Amino acid sequence: MAQPVAQPTATTPVLPAKLPLKVIAPWAAFFGILMLVLLYFVGAEQGATSVFSGAGVHEWVHDARHLLGFPCH
User: Fold this and answer.
1) What is the band of 9 on the pLDDT scale with cuts at 50, 70, 90?
2) CA proximity to 72, closest of 47, 49, 35, 51
3) Residue 23 has pLDDT above 80, yes or no
4) For a FRET experiment, which of 3, 16, 29, 52 has its CA 20 to 30 Å from that of 61?
5) Count of the separate structural domains present in the chain
6) Is pTM, for the whole model, over 0.70?
7) Percent of the chain clearing pLDDT 70 (strictly above)
8) Angle at CA 70, nearest 5°, toward 47 and 60?
9) What is the distance between the alpha carbons of residues 65 and 73, in angstroms, rounded to a whole number?
10) Which is higher by pLDDT, 14 or 45?
11) Which domain holds residue 36?
């Protein structure tokens, strides 16, 4: 016969799980770098700092530029 599971009471504190910094840090660094690359392509990928020639990237991110308030024309 299975043992009954104790139900939490009103006095039982519910604590969030703690994640150590060494687990979070690599993901934070990865997403931080990813956001900086995305910001570059949306905000500055044209002109003298262009990684790709032509206006292909500019056309793909054109509406995002306007949505985020970057001037482009």
Assistant:
1) low
2) 47
3) yes
4) 29
5) 1
6) no
7) 84
8) 65
9) 10
10) 14
11) 22-68
In a domain, 35, yes or no: yes
Note whether 8 and 14 are within 8 A (CB): yes
Nearest by Cα to 61 from 39, 34, 35, 42: 42
Q: How many CB atoms lie within 10 A of CB 44?
A: 14
Residues 43-50: what's their mean pLDDT? 70
Q: Which two tokens stand for residue 22?
A: 């060494």
DSSP state of 51: S
The whole-angstrom separation of Cα 51 and Cα 35 is 17
Angle at 17 between CA 9 and CA 11, to 5 degrees: 15
Say if 7 falls within a structural domain.
Answer: no
> Which two structure tokens, joined as six digits, stand for 54?
């032509």
Q: Is residue 52 part of a domain?
A: yes
Alpha-helical regions (H) of the chain: 21-43, 56-60, 62-68
